[in-house]
Specification:
The chain has a single domain, classed as Vaccinia Virus protein VP39 (Rossmann fold, 3-Layer(aba) Sandwich). The chain has a 7-stranded mixed beta sheet with strand order 3-2-1-4-5-7-6, with helices on one face. About 7% of the residues have low confidence. The chain is of the alpha/beta class. It is built from 8 helices and 7 strands; from the N terminus they run βαβββααβαββαααα. The chain is globular and about 45 Å long. Helix content is 30%, strand content 17%.
Length: 210
């Protein structure tokens, strides 16, 4: 059996690459890159019977990032366009996935839609910097068992993916989501929905997946 996965607002697909590598049915939607559905997510309306086991959304974060808007009272922050975020929630309400996540840099979008379900550090999943990140949604929290400390061996898969994408700008590089985060989510959702056993001894067994 395969999981049905939807990746919205995507460009590079790093967040779902582990699902692809493990043979699942992944649909990607975005306006750039090698995507299944080339569309602005605001203009994409799935059928009412369209279903996914897991949906991931990464709305463009420039307007919401505290790093890019040091003062929350800035005109740019207060006038940010929420239409993409609203479209993400619309798709969740239509498709009713078992699990779903909306991701954005910490402390920005939360001022508009409320506190996140959880805040994580991307460095816990192989990213080169800490990068605090907020996640909203229905999240399989067991994924937190499978953090991968940032050292050279654990960074390898993430960097292999990043370096396979030519001509990336610094902003695009920062937007890459750690492969190991997607992998941790994948193996936990496989367990919850397909009954595939989890790695038995946490870190030791998880390492063989990387």
């Amino acid at each position: 059996m395969k999981l049905k996965v939807f990746d919205g607002c995507t460009e590079f697909g790093s967040e779902v690459q582990a699902f692809i590598d493990r043979g699942h049915d992944v649909t990607t939607c975005g306006i750039e890159g090698n995507v299944t559905i080339k569309s602005d997510i605001r203009k994409y309306f799935p059928h009412e019977d369209e279903y996914y086991d897991f949906m991931w959304f990464s709305p463009p974060c420039t307007e919401f990032s505290i790093a890019g808007n040091r003062w929350r009272g800035s005109c740019k922050y207060n006038m940010c366009d929420m239409s993409i975020v609203e479209a993400c929630f619309r798709l969740v309400n239509t498709c009713k996935p078992k699990y779903w996540i909306i991701e954005n840099p910490s402390r920005g979008l939360s001022q508009k839609i409320g506190d996140p379900t959880i805040t994580i550090l991307y460095s816990d999943f192989g990213y080169i910097a800490k990068k605090p990140t907020d996640l909203w949604g229905k999240i399989p929290m067991k994924f937190l068992r499978y953090k991968t400390p940032t050292d050279k061996s654990k960074l390898l898969k993430n960097f292999q993916y990043m370096h396979s994408l030519p001509g990336m700008t610094m902003t695009q590089t920062r937007s890459i989501i750690p492969y190991n985060l997607g992998l941790a989510l994948c193996i936990v959702i496989e367990n919850e929905i397909l009954g595939i056993p989890l790695p038995t001894s946490k870190q030791k067994d998880f390492d063989k997946y990387i």
